[in-house]
Amino acid sequence: MKKIGVLISGRGSNLQALIDAQRKGELGGEIAIVISNVESAPGLERARRAGIPAVFRDHRGKSREAFDADLVAEMREHGVELVCLAGFMRLLSPTLVRAFRGRILNVHPALLPAFPGLDAQRQALEHGVKLSGATVHVVDEGLDSGPIVMQEAVRVLGADTVETLSARILEAEHRIYPRAVRALLEGRCRTEGRRVVVEGE
User: Fold this and answer.
1) Going residue by residue through the chain (201 aa), what tens digit of pLDDT does each one get?
2) CA 51 to chain centre
3) Cα–chain-centroid distance for residue 84?
4) Known catalytic residues?
């Protein structure tokens, strides 16, 4: 069973989606370690309740490179082959990206390349788009700029607030993230330039 490392900073709802998929045998791998840079992150307790090793690692007082080197060492110790970012509120350094190149996934609450970075749902509303959604992409050294693995569109309604749109996009994230993880772990993702072709999707 291929090992997955999950990095979180908060509540861990996408982590829970991955845990649920693993329980159903639909993830294609096993979550071996959950690491948070926030000691009080509720996602740590989610992991522990599921019997998954979960640890806090403090980034304060360290350079990005030094902290990421610690993460790499921790994940290698647990045999991690795929890294999943699940609300991890830090930009990765080249140290981590190079250690797991092509094997780091992130889920973002917008249809990339539109609205990268923070407050994507607010950006979508302010721009008046009629469709937003969720994107799973491979992480590179840029900000939400890596090749797109999977997307799901979500209609933007006239009465939407940031909260209501965010809630519907989050449901889409929970649906596509485990599917993307499984596709990558099963070797069904083929990269052609910037394009990722997913067999069976």
Assistant:
1) 899 999 999 999 999 999 999 999 999 999 999 999 999 999 999 999 999 999 999 999 999 999 999 999 999 999 999 999 999 999 999 999 999 999 999 999 999 999 999 999 999 999 999 999 999 999 999 999 999 999 999 999 999 999 999 999 999 999 999 999 999 999 999 988 889 999 988
2) 20
3) 5
4) 108
Cα–Cα dist 1/109, whole Å: 29
For residue 64, the one-letter residue type is R
Which DSSP string do the residues of 126-164 spell out, in sequence order? HHT-SEEEEEEEE--SSSS-SPEEEEEEEEPPTT--HHH
Report which of 137, 173, 151, 181 is spatially closest to residue 6, judged by C-alpha positions: 181
Q: Residues 188, 200: contact at Cβ < 8 Å?
A: yes
151, 176 in Cβ contact below 8 A? yes
What are the CA-CA distances from residue 130 to residues 48, 84, 110, 158, 200 (Å)?
Answer: 39, 29, 12, 9, 28
Architecture of domain 3-190: 3-Layer(aba) Sandwich (3.40)
- Residue 21 CA to residue 148 CA, distance in Å, equals 21
Residue 1, exposed/middle/buried by CB under 10 A (0-12, 13-18, 19+)?
Answer: exposed
pTM here is 0.96
Torsion sign, CA atoms 61, 64, 66, 67 = positive
Question: What DSSP element (H or E) covers 174?
Answer: helix 162-185
Return the domain boundaries, the chain.
3-190
